[in-house]
Structure formats: C-alpha cells, structure tokens
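Morning!

This is the sequence you dropped in the shared folder:
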Amino acid sequence: MFADFLKRLVQPGPAPLPDTDARLALTALLVRVARSDGHFDAEERARILKIVTRRYGLSPEGAEQLLADAAQLETEAPDTVRFTRAIKDAVAHDDRIAVIEALWAVVLADGSRDDAEDALLRLVSNLLGINDRDSAMARQRVENQP
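The structure's back. Tokens below.
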C-alpha cells in the first residue's frame, strides 16, 4: 500500500516531504516508538491522537485515519535507521526537535519508561541529528507540562 511512498522516502537525497507525507512519516515514527516496548496501549494511542490532532489541526476522524495509515506504514517501513535518516533528510531541524518532544510524550504516556523505549529514543534522536542534551531537555519539557 505504501511502497511508492517508502521508495521515495528512502531514496538517496530525498526531497522535502509534502505536508501530508511528512504527517504520515512522523506519525509512523510515533507508532514505532509506542510499539518498541512490545505494548501499544490505550494511553499511547490516545497520546498520539492528541499530538496529531493538535499539531495538524485534524478532526477526531482525521486523526484516527492518520493513525490507522501510520500504523500500517510502520509495519511496512524499513529498519528504524533507514526510516529515521530519511525523515531527517526531509524535515527541518527545528521540526525534528518538536518530533523528539512528541516521541517523549508517547514514551511517557503510560507513566513508565522502558529500557527499549529509552534505547530507541536515544537512537532516533541521534539519527535525527538531535544530541542527547537536547533530547533530555525535550523530555524535561514534556515531563513538566501540566
């Protein structure tokens, strides 16, 4: 279903993604992080829906459809390294910091941090060109949100 999209995303020197493709790729990355501990629970799902609804101004139905498409894309996407590097090449640096904040929000949604989630966040941050300090600061901003 997403073969052409993935092909464009992982080709050498991908062009910046159109908004709809960027939404899909970034939401798929949120799903990948949520699934990294072997559980994609209701809290994580609700957090992703909240993130995409707010970030993209989607209706509840639109957010549900984006999440469904992203979950399917995540299962078809290549390994995390290639997938994340492709996103890095296609998304501006400031937007990648916001992505890290969203990823931390998903990791923390269920009230616990798992070693697998921490390891994946460390890898993804690095691959997105975000250093450990900036990732930790992003995590702290998420933890301090009311």
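Headline: The domain at 18-143 is CATH 1.10.3680.10 (TerB-like).

More detail when I'm at my desk.
O.
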